[in-house]
Design a protein that fits this description.
The protein contains nine helices and eleven strands. Helix 2 packs across helix 8 and helix 2 packs antiparallel against helix 9. Strands 6, 7, 8, 9, 10 and 11 form a six-stranded mixed beta sheet that branches. A hairpin with a 2-residue loop joins strand 2 and strand 3. The chain is an alpha/beta fold and 286 residues long.
Length: 286
């Protein structure tokens, strides 16, 4: 989990975010109060909330043996209980998440997915978290990296097709446009850039801040964070465009969780409370 110092840095970095209505919220200890009876909703399986996730991204979603764990897992479990539903998580590769929910093979996606305009063309989002992209380097930062302007001519480990991948490719184009060497890319799954950096196959990786901080903290000094979080943006739970009843019911459950304090309690348990919201939004990403 991120250290207190890491969480303080995130709080300061994300304070500049201009997304309306987004701010940290206080901790609480109110337990979930399940609905008296299952909410009548169109579901893949009656009485069950089927959730697609790529559980490779601690501390948000990962596996402990055969068990799904993490902040997203606990949060969605809480939301399902508020709707009187059982929850079933289905391991799904990140690249297949949107097609899975759009094709009604899952009810929603909960997988640290950034809500952005291009994705809103295919799915709707209920925003529940705010995060930024963070560079991870070898301990001691041997190349002196500090912000995207120092990435030119270096090799990045990143998951293409994600917000982090888009950031690296955009910076690479800026490098070549100014006559500098582009950023070379080693493509990796979400959460795996640190392995490539530690092995010396890349100069830096880019992950969402919660995962980057957890990786650095767990490395024993082998890895470090370089620069500040970039591009603060919301994570969203994703729904098929024609599942508005389910989307709206989950949004109401999330607002109830926030108001009760249970939401803050869950995020605090996973060390990511600095990225909490005080209210929900639909398709709030730019």
């Amino acid at each position: 989990m991120p250290t207190t110092r890491s969480r303080a840095a995130l709080t300061a970095a994300l304070a500049v975010a201009t997304l309306a209505g987004l701010a940290g919220c206080g901790a609480g200890s109110t337990a979930t109060t399940p609905a008296a009876a299952p909410v009548q909703l169109p579901l893949v399986t009656a009485g069950t909330l089927t959730v697609a996730t790529d559980a490779t991204y601690a501390p948000m979603e990962s596996m402990e043996g055969s068990k799904f764990v993490g902040a997203d897992v606990d949060l969605v479990t809480d939301l399902a209980a508020r709707l009187g539903l059982e929850v079933v998580f289905v391991q799904t590769s990140f690249d297949d998440l949107i097609d899975t929910v759009a094709g009604h093979r899952a009810d929603l996606v909960a997988s640290s997915m950034t809500d952005r305009a291009s994705r809103q063309e295919q799915v709707d989002f209920v925003d529940y978290f705010i995060a930024g992209s963070q560079a991870v380097v070898a301990g001691g930062n041997p190349h002196g990296l500090d912000g995207p302007g120092t990435w030119c001519g270096r090799t990045a480990a990143v998951n293409l097709g994600t917000t982090n991948g888009d950031l690296v490719l955009a910076q690479s184009a800026l490098c070549t446009g100014s006559g500098e060497a582009p950023v070379a890319v080693v493509e990796v799954p979400n959460g795996k850039s640190a392995d490539v950096v530690a092995a010396g196959r890349a100069d830096f990786g880019v992950e969402d801040y919660p995962s980057a901080a957890a990786l650095a903290d767990a490395s024993g000094g082998t890895l470090a964070l370089a620069g500040r979080p970039l591009q603060a943006a919301p994570y969203g739970l994703a729904f098929a465009k024609d599942r508005t009843d389910l989307r709206d019911a989950v949004q109401r459950a999330l607002q109830e969780s926030i108001a009760s304090g249970r939401y803050a309690e869950i995020l605090q348990a996973h060390g990511v409370e600095a990225a909490a919201l005080t209210t929900t939004a639909l398709n709030g990403g730019a």
